[in-house]
Structure formats: C-alpha cells, structure tokens
Amino acid sequence: MTKDYRPTVFLPTTDFPMKAGLPAKEPEILARWEKIGLYEKLRADSKGREKFILHDGPPYANGHLHIGHALNKILKDVINRSRQMMGFDANYVPGWDCHGLPIEWKIEEKYRAAGKNKDDVPIDEFRKECRDFAEHWIGIQREEFKRLGVVGDWKNPYTTMSFAAEAQIVREIQKFLMNGGLFKGSKPVMWSVVERTALAEAEVEYHEHTSSTVFTKFPVVKAADKALDGASIVIWTTTPWTLPGNRAIALSKDADYVRLRVDAVGEKSLAKVGDEVVVARDLAETVAKACAIDSHTVLATLKGAAILGTVCAHPLRGQGYEFDVPVLHGDFVTLDAGTGFVHIAPGHGADDYNLGTANGIEVPHTVDADGTYFHHVPIFGGEHPARVLDDAGKDGDANGRVIATMIEAGALLGKGRLRHQYPHSWRSKAPLIFRNTPQWFISMTTNDLRKKALAAIDATAFYPAGGRNRLYAMIEQRPDWVISRQRAWGVPIAVFENRETGELLRDPEVNERIVEACLKGGADAWFTAKPADFLGNQYNPSDWKMVTDILDVWFDSGSTHSFVLEQRPDLQWPASLYLEGSDQHRGWFHSSLLESCGTRGRAPYDAVLTHGFTLDEKGRKMSKSLGNTVEPQDVIKQSGADILRLWVVSSDYSDDLSVGKGIIQAQSDAYRRLRNTLRYLLGNLSGFAESERLPFEEMPELERWVLHRLAELGRIVRESCADYDFHRMYVAIYNFCAVDLSSFYFDIRKDALYCDAPDSNRRRAARTVLDALFDCLVKWLAPFISFTAEEAWLTRFPSAEGSVHREVFPTLPEQWLNPALGEKWEKVRRVRRAVTGALELERAEKRIGASLQAHPVVYASAEDLEAVLDLDFAEICITSGITLREGEGPAEAFRSEDARGVAVTSQLAEGHKCERCWQVLPEVGEIAGHEDLCRRCTTAVG
C-alpha cells in the first residue's frame, strides 16, 4: 500500500477566502474604518509631512449618485490614497454645491402641485425649504460616496450654503466691487424664458431644433455704389422674431456680391418678377432655389468693400421702424449658408452687440423676461404682445406674426424650415433666446483679468496636456462674465446702487456689516434686512437701492478655494490639484480661475486633471430612455465597490469610459486574478518568520530576477502615481501578477515551497521573495481595491487599529535592479516557451499526463544555450530532466513563432515517480527505507 505523504507537504494555509463576497465584506470594513477613526489616524500619522491637497469640485446636492459621480469620486480617492502612501499628507475635504436653479425648481414644482404661487411665499421661508432640500440630499449622497470606499473628512465637509461660506462668497464679490471689476451693463445674454433667468455658457447645451427661416429684403435708400440704386439687400435668418430688433446689416468686405433681377418664379414663390436683390455671388444659386426663383439675370458684380457705407430701410419702414439700417463689415460673416449678408440685432446676439456698439448703434430692448415683446415695440408689442416662447419653452406666436407682417409688407423673398443645433437650458431642456437685459458682469479687461488668467493657465500643469489649449482658447475669446441670476436661492450680489446715478457704493465699513450679518444668519440676512441696517448713519437709505439679483452658482463654486483652502488650517492654498470631468473647462476650472485671478492674481490650483464621460458598451451616451444606464448602487450590491474601483483604474479615464454588464464582468474576472495572487502569497507565507529570511546575496538567480522585476515595477508605480497615469500602473501590476508570477514564478516555485525542507535555502529564498511581493503588491493595490487590500493586510497582520492604508509604499533596494539579469531572463523565458509549447502538444496527444513525466531535448543557438546552461533548466521548465544541445534540431521537432531558433523533441523521463513530489527520477527506489521517495523528499521527511 502506498504511504500517504500529504501531511508532510507544506500546502498553503490562509483564512483569506477565494470567494470575495465583497457586497457583504465591504460594509464590515467600512464599519471598522469608522470605529478606529481611520481618517483621523491618517491625519495624525502624516502630521508634519508635505501636503498634497486635491480640492473637491462640489457635486450638486440633488438626487442619488450616478455612474459619473462614482468615476469622479473613485478617481479622487485613488489619487489621495496613492499620494498618502507616497509619503504625503493627502487630506481630502469633500464638499457640495447647494445653491441654484435645480433645487429652486424642485421647490417650485412642489408649490405648483399644491396650487401655491412661489411669489406669495416669504422669501426666507422659500429659501429655508431650498436649504432643507439640499441638506437632505447631502446626507444621502454622503453615505453613497462613503460606500464607494472614499476616505475623507465626512464629518466636516464644506457646503456652499453654510453661513461662513455664504459670507465669504459675499466677501469675494465685494473684492470685485472695490477693484472696479464689477459693473452693471445691458447686454444680450442667453435667457431662459421657462426659468426666467440669464444663463452662463456653462449652463447651455445644444440640441436639435426646428427653426423658421426667412429671406428678408432691406431696400437700399442710400447707395455707396450706383450699382445698388433701387435694389434690396437680402438677409437670411433662423430667428424671424429678432427682425424687430434689427439695426444694421453685416457683410464680408472681401467677398463678391451680385445684383440679380428676378425673371421668373415658381407657383408659391414669395419673390416677384422684376425684384432686384443683392446677395453673395457664391450663394446666388442656392438663394434662387430656396426662394423658388426659376430664372434670374445678373445685372452687376461688386466687392463687399464697395457696398460698405450703404444705408437701407428697415423692411417695416412706415410702420414704426423709421430708423436707417447701415451696412457694416463683420469678421464673422461667412459664405457657408444664407445670403452673405447677416442681419444685425444688437440686443439678440454677441456678434451683433459687439459690431453694433463698436459703430455707435443703439442696443434696443425688444423682448421681456417672459418672452413677450415690450409694450413699446411697434406692431408686435402693445396690449396683445407676440411671444417668442411660452412658459413651457414651446414656440409662441412671434415668428408667425413677424413672418405674416413681412409678407404683407412685401418684404420676404422666401421662407422655410431648418433642423439645426440650437442652445437649450441644461436644466429645463427648453430652448433659449438671446435678449438684451440689464445684468451684472465682471469685466475681463479691468485689472487685466484676461491677461492674468492666460498667464495662470501657462503656469498650470494639465493632465492630459490638451486641457491647457482648451481652457486657454475659452479664456482668450470669452466675453465679460455674466454673474447675475434673477432667482431667489443663492448668494445675493450684496451691493448698493445709487437710485439716481447708478453708481455703486464702495464703502469698506458697509461691506463688513453685510459680511457680519451673513456670518450670523447666512445670505438670508440680505433679503430680510433693511438698507439702513447696513448703511449706518453715513448714507440716506432712500438714495440707495439694494441689488436683489443673486450670484451665478459658478461664482459660488469658483470661490470655494477662498473658504475651504484658505480658511482650513489642515489644508493649503493653492491646491495641488483640481480634478473634474472635461466639461469643467467651461465650468468649475474656468470660474475658479477667473475668481482667483481677479482677487489674488493667480490660479487656485497648481495642476488640473480631467476625465471623460461614461458611455455604454456600444459607446453611446447613457439615458434612461435607451435603458442603457448603469447605476453604481446596483453594481455595488451585486459585485462590490472594489469592482467599480477596478473599472476606473483599468480604463483610460483621459478619454470617455464605457461601462456595462460585460465590462463589469470582465473587471470581476480581472479582480479574481489579483485576489488569487494575494491569496497564493498569504497561503505560502503562513508561519513565515524573520529567522528564515535569506540575504539577497545568497538567493538563487530566479529569486533575484523576481526582485529585479519588482524593482522595475516599483519605478512604474511611483512614476504613474506622480503622473496620475493609473491605467499604466494597473496594466503593469496586472500583467506582473498574471504573467511573471502566476504563469511563471509561482508555477516553478510551487515544488520548492511544498516539498523542500523548511530550512532549505531554495525554500527560504522563495518565502523571502513572497514576503517582499506581498508587501509591495498589497500596498500598491491599496489605492485601487481598497477593501480587498485591507482584508488581505489584516489577514496577515491582524491588529486592533492597524490598516494597510496607514502604510507607505515600500522603498526598494537599488541592488535589486539588474537590467542585465532582466535581459538574460527574457532569453530564458523565450526558450522555456518553446519547451512549454512542446509539452502541451504531448499532453494533447496523451503521451504524457503531467510535465514532470517528460524529459525534453532542447536544440538552440549557442547564445540561447548560454542563458540557460548555468540554471537548473529542468526545474524552470517543470520537468524531471532536460537535455540541451546546440543546433537546429531534427525536422520533426516542435517549433513556435514566439521562440524562433529553438526546437524541442520530447521523451519520457527515466526512472520512477516520487510519491511525494511526483518527479520521475532514476534515484527513486534506490534509497533504503524510502524506496518510494527521491533524495530531496527523503531529507524533507527524515
């Protein structure tokens, strides 16, 4: 009967389970972190270290977290944990954006459902409901963020609605008041009729929209060139409702224009035979076709420069539109579409405004806040004004009435419809209009704000680098910053305006009284107090008006650096890093830059990192209507937060990231590889003691090669963390675990670990290397799979208050790095691949069962053989013997593409099988008393 040697084999022993059970295990680890005060311990551990401060871009306190939130917060946590473990004090203070329209809109919806009118509710009561709504969602989101494994000061986060924050935001706007950067102007701004407020560019998104189009004739009344006498200049517009606001026409001075006579028209054409009109030469045929002009004659051709100075009449002259319409040059005029002439309504567009004001043309007030024409607008105002958009954002009757009036006046050459991209509110999703309205602005030129901001961009590091150009282009071209909103929930523009002159009150004492009131009662104090409470005895309250507009929420979030980084002693200004999605080049990065440059002369950050958006597995944008959304809560419930964290770092987050069931499953598979690596290490390190550690100099070459690879990987880890290139780091670690360890080193050393005597140098060397591998891998993986790394660490080092996250990345000895050894083992592994391929073929043909039954013969060049001759190459190939021969080998030998120049023939190993290690050796059967064992195993069991 064969003796059972299993009790003598040193099999792996560990309590670290193969099955992770993350959905159940992670909450236990979170509870432990809470119990031991991990965040507080990290702060105490890192006291006196160099600070690394990632300033949290505040998410909006409105609704459950989506997958984009998970991506953002996990990435921030990976960065903070990695910097902490690189020896920094990486204190993370999370925050929330609390003001603004989405919350206000929710409260208004509740009122409408109850049949209440918001305007009938005292403003302090309304604002309290908004505050309570935000507080409710902060509580929910806080727990959802913590469940992702994000460590931070969750007990003391910042919020833009705290009294101290609101007071500081008021201080910040007062700085612009005092330095002259704040001014009131009347400019065309993006306006939401639905929400009754101006919107910043960052709050605008573009969607498909169908617009009415018209070709409108402007009769020439004063010709700069005789070729224009008696003709009409034709403009094309997709916003007929803006024609009452027309005050000029723009052309390109370098373009060619033609005067056409209409000779024949189609049945439904609005053009008339005999009409003589002027359009761009390159667009003449397109205009003729669009206006159903069947034939025409070119009467004259002239350059745009020759037309400059021409004056036209408004198409509705004689009906209240008696002003002249001059023809001007506009750099923005192109010949891509239309007629080559652009209708200029200074109150309804940025280019229009700039061109009009540069030429001394009035900027009319045409459309009111509700989308109706003002009473004074001829034809379309009055007692029954036309309306551009209704309260729901649907088309009103303005376009129809304008078009009908133009047709009646004989002013239209043609009309149509166009499907195109049009600005919409990102909240209500309703179309917007450009309208001239008094607003508050921060000047881009006063105090050289634009120049300072551009210089600050040049001084900032961007990840990826292309973010610099994007932000630079935006700042370079942007108009003055519209900071006012006509809403109720937010921080007020707490300044006084002289009722007679419009002059702003710039008094430090008044400013300080306002701030003090906000510190005590929040920004509500501005809305509930009387002017005299702030003005004191120096000013007559009847002379001054309190501004009731509130600040754009981007000013709020752009000011967070002032009441978080500057005012918390555990942080520092400027931040080491700002990190958000790539849309924040026009949002938080942008507003923070302008606010800080306007008040402090530099950016509030040293570096900016952007990540992409989340898409489904087909690369489509996620939407509930498509049913392709992935909720982080569902992934956590089914697979665990570590799988989400692995998805983030395994993706190239500088681009858009795809996620779906298939991708989550792939991450689960990859996670198992990493977990099994940790489990293998833990199992084979059971009982490891310092006394068995083997000095580096006494280690076999295989172990020294593993340590060389570990040192190479250590460099990649530190470089990747420094560059925020976690994708590179993850790929390097994963491949190391899968290829270098699992498929190579672990496979080879399994025999020594299981069967060598405990005091053998080979086993001691292997266990010493496994200890180094565990120490490095568990720490390097800690920022990624934070829960699993903690579980593995505590399995090996149980402790009441210890944590892998309190450790630092290991500093590896320089002597481990050996490029020459690395090159040699590349050759060793290449030759081994040929042997492995040959053995796989033998197994497939059932000529052997296990590789230990084989004794391959390897044919290779002298150079290749040199790499393996001084090794126990049979051990490396996991065979019981091996023969090495120089030469090409027989024709029937096995060869493979990835090991060119190497040939292998296979034969069975000679001897008998050792019942303990299963090697087939001639010595088995020759040892008295241990006839079923080899010499090594006899010693091990003896």
From TrEMBL:
Residues 703-855 form the Methionyl/Valyl/Leucyl/Isoleucyl-tRNA synthetase anticodon-binding domain. Binds 1 zinc ion per subunit. Signal peptide: none annotated. PROSITE patterns: AA_TRNA_LIGASE_I. Zn(2+) binds at residues 914, 917, 934, 937. Its main location: cytoplasm. It is found in: Cytoplasm. L-isoleucyl-5'-AMP binds at residue 580. GO terms for molecular function: isoleucine-tRNA ligase activity. SUPFAM superfamilies: Anticodon-binding domain of a subclass of class I aminoacyl-tRNA synthetases, Nucleotidylyl transferase, ValRS/IleRS/LeuRS editing domain. A motif ('KMSKS' region) lies at residues 621-625. Keywords: Aminoacyl-tRNA synthetase, ATP-binding, Cytoplasm, Ligase, Metal-binding, Nucleotide-binding, Protein biosynthesis, Zinc. Belongs to the class-I aminoacyl-tRNA synthetase family. IleS type 1 subfamily. Monomer. Catalyzes the attachment of isoleucine to tRNA(Ile). As IleRS can inadvertently accommodate and process structurally similar amino acids such as valine, to avoid such errors it has two additional distinct tRNA(Ile)-dependent editing activities. One activity is designated as 'pretransfer' editing and involves the hydrolysis of activated Val-AMP. The other activity is designated 'posttransfer' editing and involves deacylation of mischarged Val-tRNA(Ile). This is Isoleucine--tRNA ligase. The gene is ileS.
